[in-house]
Amino acid sequence: MGWELIIILVSFINSISIKMKPSSSSSSSKVHNKLKQVYLFHMLVVLVFLFFLSCHTTTDHKVNKEEQDVISSITNILEKNYVDKEIATELSRMLKENKSSGKYEGLDNTIFVARVNRDIRSIVNDRHLQVMTNSPSKKLPWSKSSILKVDVLEGNIGYLKLSVFPNPNKEYYGQMANALGLLKDTNGIIIDLSDNGGGHPDAVSNLLGYFVENKTLYDSFYVPSIDKSFEYTTRGEVKGHKLMNMPLGIIVNERTASVAELCALAFQNLQLGKVYGTTTMGLVNLAEYYPINDSLYLLASKGKQKNPFNVNIEDKGVIPDIRSDNAIVQAHLDLIKKAHGSSFKDWYNKSLGKTPVKLNDSLINTYVGNYGYLTIGKKDSTLYYNDEMGFSYQMIPLNENTFGLKLNSDERFRLIFKENRGEVMLIKKYFDGSEISYERL
């Protein structure tokens, strides 16, 4: 729809107006002229509508013949830079055939990008490789939010939660030194990388440097297009204190990705600590944004993992040493056990009795009952926790509504009673802050 159609319609209207000759009578001539005016008015409305429709249509971006060169740019980038030459050749052949057959003609940008990415996926399941319309961020800036939490848990176990590994600067190095400085006198540290999407390898090298005495190679990547390897090493010198021989537990999950995976793998390969959780994403190839034109980019893998440990986790992920859906609790328990050795149970039970609390029978009775598959019983003014396996543990009051357990097992949590709309609820609160609520039946 364009100006050509409008010109044709104008010519058509002119021809109609010429053919519409009035009759000889004056009255019929007036009627005729009136009808002609109404007719021409309606045609004018149609023309205006078509004009604006034409303007709207022409602003909708189409992949015209000139823009078909986008495919040529993509294939050139792949053939020169993609990490796997055979796959690059196959992708180029497919995209060129699709271009020749007109598969991408007449598509707006959004549909064009989606179509090309779908075709790429039909050849290779590389989660890096894709055409993108947004300009990539060149650097991931440092933010205080990258260090989400620093804490000391029960048993003097440190906890460090990292949301991302930013491109580090002087301020970031200082903040990390302060965070680890707070944990230097603990009996062990949990480093939580769950949901960490990665970032900059320099921040990983800095973190690892606190736990390794000398500069140490922990990973490397080979880039075939330039026949060159890039090595990742721990920092030999760090700001603040080194934490040599500190017991460590590293937490990962299925959303741990990129250099966060390399970090967990390095702790594992260098035997600095155990990894807990679920298998990570497996998204570690070196990738780069290549400009296609002013509005499109190609994100493509250019380097593959090739380290001294002969481990490549691309599309496989880091496999935890200890698989657990409650990884923080498990790591916490293991670090406490390591710190207290054979006296662990004695330490735990003694820690419950440091501040003994006495409760009256009337309050104790309000807690007795069934809470789903858990039961709270009473014997001689003492409450007992009965779990789903039928085991019974004495409950030690820490205050009026919070209890610990005198344990012969490895469970570590607090039992908290709360009132909700007049009903008593039981909350099982784990040391990592997670909790499960049970209504009394």
From TrEMBL:
List the InterPro entries. Answer: ClpP/crotonase-like_dom_sf, Tail-specific_protease
Give every Tail specific protease domain span. Answer: 124-325
Give one GO biological process term. Answer: proteolysis
- Parts of the chain that traverse the membrane: none
Tell me one GO molecular function of this protein: serine-type peptidase activity
| Pfam families for this protein | Peptidase_S41
- Name of protein: Tail specific protease domain-containing protein
Q: Species name for this entry? A: Flagellimonas lutimaris
